[in-house]
Structures are given as C-alpha cells and as structure tokens.
Amino acid sequence: MNPQSWSVASDDYLRYAEASTTYFAEKSVEFAHLESQTDINILDVACGTGVVAAAVVKLLSPTVSLTSTDYASGMVDVVSSKAEKLGWKNVKTEVMDGMNLPLSEASIDAVFCVFGVMLMPDGAKALSEFHRILVPGGKAVYTTWASQELQHLLLNAMAKTKGEEPQGRPWVRSWADLEFCKEQLVAAGFENVSGVLCSGDMPTDAENLDEFIASMTRNPGIRTALLKDMNDDQITQFKKELRASIIEKYGEQDVYKFRADANIAMGTK
Ligand SMILES: C[S@@+](CC[C@H](N)C(=O)[O-])C[C@H]1O[C@@H](n2cnc3c(N)ncnc32)[C@H](O)[C@@H]1O
Fold first, then answer.
1. Rounded Cα distance, 125 and 14, in Å
2. How close is the Cα of 196 to the center of ligand 1, in Å?
3. In whole angstroms, what is the distance from residue 219 CA to residue 230 CA?
4. 117: CA distance to ligand 1 center in Å?
5. By three-state DSSP, how is residue 260 classified?
6. Please, are residues 154 and 212 in contact by the beta-carbon 8 Å criterion?
7. Ligand 1 neighbourhood includes 70 CB (under 6 angstroms)
8. Distance from the Cα of residue 102 to its chain's centroid
9. What CATH architecture is 3-147+170-203+257-268?
C-alpha cells in the first residue's frame, strides 16, 4: 500500500466505500462529545473522501476548524471539491502522513482517525504523533474494523479460489480487538482511555453488485490484506466466488446490507 494506490482508488472509494464508513465516522464524532465546543482546531488523519468532515459539519459548531488530511493527494482532492461544492467553510485540507505529522506540539484540540491507524505500517507511531500534537486535555479518537460479515465472504471466496479450506483470520492484525486499541492509547501516553464496539451496515445496490465486487478487488487495503498473491485469473475466479457466496447467503436483494462491527477508542492527553 502506498499513497499512489489510494489516490488511484479515490473514485472507487467515493462511489462504493464511503457509504460503509459514514455511519462509523458519525459515531466516532459523537463519541468525542465535542458538541458544546466552539473555536477549536480538529485534525482528521487518513480522511479518505471526507466522512469525518461531513460528520463534523453535521454534528459540531460551525465555529470549529477542521483540517482533513491524508497521505494520498487524490483523497485530499476529493475532500477539497466536496468542501467547495457543499459550502464547508470551516474545512481545509492538506496532504499529511499520519505517522509523521508536520504540526507543532500542542497545536490541536482533537484528532480523529477513522479506519486509518489499522492500515499504517506503524500505527503506534501515529498514536504517539496524535499525543504530541494535542493540547493538554485534547482528545484522540480512532476507529478500526472489528469484524465484518463481508470479510467472512471475502475469506471464503479467497479460500475457494485457491482450493483451500476457509479459515478465520483477523482483519488487520490486532487492531480488530478493542482492548488492544485501548492499550495502544495508554502506551502512547493517553489518559481516561475508553472505547465502544459499534455495529452498523455496509450497504450496496444490487444493480451495482458486480461493480461493487470489482471495486473491492481494487481496494488497496483488501488487495494487501487478502489478494496480493493472486494472479489475474484467480482474481476473476475470486469475483465469481464472492458473487456466488453473497447470493447464496442473502438471496436476490434490491439492496445488500452487510453487517459490520467497529471499535471506537478514545483517550485524553
Ligand atoms: C479505509 S480508508 C478510510 C478513509 C476514511 N477515514 C473513511 O473512514 O472513509 C484508509 C485511508 O487511510 C489513508 N492512509 C493510509 N496510510 C496513511 C498514512 N500513513 N497517513 C495518512 N493517511 C493514510 C489512505 O490513503 C486512505 O484514504
């Protein structure tokens, strides 16, 4: 995974993936309880196509300032155009690596990172960066996938493609475990650490099921975690297997809703 692969995937992400993360971004912003805060500086790390920005605009005071950041310029560009189109006057954007933030110590009041830390090669480094840039009393909130119905279907399709027995496997290392996520905040120096397991749906239209499946095989996170050893023929077979498993499990539907669980963890500096 690299910034370029995510930039290339930004259109796919906008079309198919952000519908799955919007709900969890809103829950993450709600979890921080910043509704009564005005004139604070918020940083969104690994912003993707801007689901946290949309939640901040919807749920918090228009006087808060949000900087949406991602290491993929293609993602940041999507958020800039949304901000312009939708009149998000308090949202600005910048390309930044979450593991090496170009910000001074104690310069930010709250940091969000939704489905980003778990994908970084050194997530612990990102958490220590969040701690460094926060003011005393500032909050860091980050969100990881716990388990997804879709993940089991992806793993089954992968095993069938390779002629293997399906096996359970954590989504991305131990970030799938809420207790691990909280421990990582403590290790980075945070206090008052808390967390919640949150359930939601990942929806997709039936008429776009094939496109949705194709977009999953292009997603840099899924490619790296599951598909990296497959050749083109195997990817084609994988798509067929995944489609068959979805139809077998859910039948023909107008809209498919895949159940998903996410961990939201928060700490105070
Ligand atoms: C699964 S997407 C999540 C996007 C968004 N937060 C959401 O929930 O829809 C992961 C994002 O992490 C970004 N990313 C991965 N590694 C990063 C890093 N080291 N620094 C900043 N962003 C990173 C990717 O470019 C991608 O936009």
1. 28
2. 21
3. 14
4. 8
5. strand
6. no
7. yes
8. 21
9. 3-Layer(aba) Sandwich (3.40)
Could you report the per-residue pLDDT of 98-137, keeping only the tens digit for each? 999 999 999 999 999 999 999 999 999 999 999 999 999 9
The residue ranges of every structural domain in the chain are 3-147+170-203+257-268
Give the residue, by CA position, lying nearest to ligand 1 atom 5.
48
Task: Please work out whether the CB of residue 98 comes within 6 Å of at least one atom of ligand 1.
Answer: yes
Separation between Cα atoms, residue 126 and residue 135, nearest integer Å: 16
Ligand 1 contact via 54 beta carbon (within 6 Å):
no
**pLDDT tens column, 178-228:** 999 999 999 999 999 999 999 988 877 767 888 888 888 888 888 887 888
Query: How far is residue 234 from each of residues 116, 158, 171, 191, measured CA to CA in Å?
Result: 28, 9, 21, 47
Lowest mean pLDDT among 33-42, 153-162, 257-266: 153-162
Pairwise CA distance, residues 31 & 19, whole Å = 20
Closest-lying ligand 1 atom to the alpha carbon of residue 121: 19
Contact (CB, 8 A) for 265 and 181: yes
pLDDT digits (tens, 9 = 90+) for 10-47: 887 787 778 889 999 999 999 999 999 999 999 999 99
Whether the per-residue pLDDT at 173 is higher than 80: the answer is: no
